[in-house]
Design a protein that fits this description.
Helix content of chain B: 10-25%
CATH topology of chain A: CBS-domain
Low-confidence stretches of chain B: none
Number of domains of chain A: 1
CATH superfamily of chain A: CBS-domain
Largest sheet of chain B: 2 strands, antiparallel
Oligomer: heterodimer
Number of helices of chain A: 7
Low-confidence stretches of chain A: none
Structural class of chain B: little secondary structure
Order of helices and strands of chain A: HHEHEEHHEHEEH
Number of strands of chain A: 6
Largest interface: A-B, 21 and 18 residues
Shape of chain A: globular
Radius of gyration of chain A: 16 Å
Strand content of chain B: 5-15%
CATH architecture of chain A: Roll
Mean pLDDT of chain A: 90
Chain lengths: 147, 54
């Protein structure tokens, strides 16, 4: 018999419901902003920047047609030359995290590494949302505020 | 041949050599951490002490 333990992680990584004491604690997928703007590789940075800022954001996730994360545009990348294509301006292959990761762990790491935002994805790389450091820190301090 | 000295970073937890920090993707992170240590720390990898599960 083979005990496929990773199946549990895949279950949680897909954002499916869990049971037990820890299930009531907020996780990265609960706190990540689902309304984060997205862009495609072949768009121009200036157009994307205008769209992102008009929606009140200073970050944008680059995805393909299946919403698989390909890159990330934080404030620094959004400030580059407007004529660049997104694939020339983006931070390629950013580190991503699964929705089940504890918000306390994410908050601690984001503060320690001075990271303003981190993409949250499923196991196969599809975008769940963008976790903002302030949101993560707030939810870690007050778990009740996240749900 | 490139004689320029290369600067190497090491994981702050296991001392493994890394090209960039696995959490923030920066090449000058003072708290650099490797992919494996990051994954274990946030629970994305579960270490299996016995491959047959006990």
């Amino acid at each position: 018999m083979y005990d496929y333990v990773d199946g549990n992680l895949d279950w949680m990584a897909a954002g499916l419901p869990t049971e037990g004491t820890n299930a009531r604690r907020p996780r990265a997928g609960d706190v990540a902003r689902k309304d984060v703007p997205v862009s495609r590789l072949d768009e121009r940075l200036g157009i994307v920047r205008d769209r992102v800022r008009a929606s009140g954001w200073d970050a944008c996730v680059v995805v393909n047609d299946e919403r698989v994360v390909l890159g990330l545009l934080r404030a620094k990348e959004l400030g580059k030359d407007a004529e660049l294509r997104i694939d020339q301006a983006m931070r390629p292959g950013p580190s991503t995290f699964r929705p089940f990761v504890s918000i306390e762990d994410m908050a601690a790491f984001m503060v320690e590494h001075d990271v303003e935002s981190s993409p949250v994805t499923t196991s196969d790389g599809r975008l769940v949302g963008l976790l903002l450091r302030n949101d993560a820190a707030k939810a870690a301090l007050d778990p009740g505020s996240a749900r | 041949m490139n004689d320029e000295p290369t600067t190497s970073m090491r994981c702050s937890r296991c001392d493994e050599e890394v090209d960039c920090c696995s959490f923030c993707d920066e090449t000058d992170c003072p708290n650099a951490i490797c992919y494996r240590c990051t994954s274990v720390a946030v629970g994305q990898i579960v270490l299996h002490p016995q491959p047959h599960g006990g």
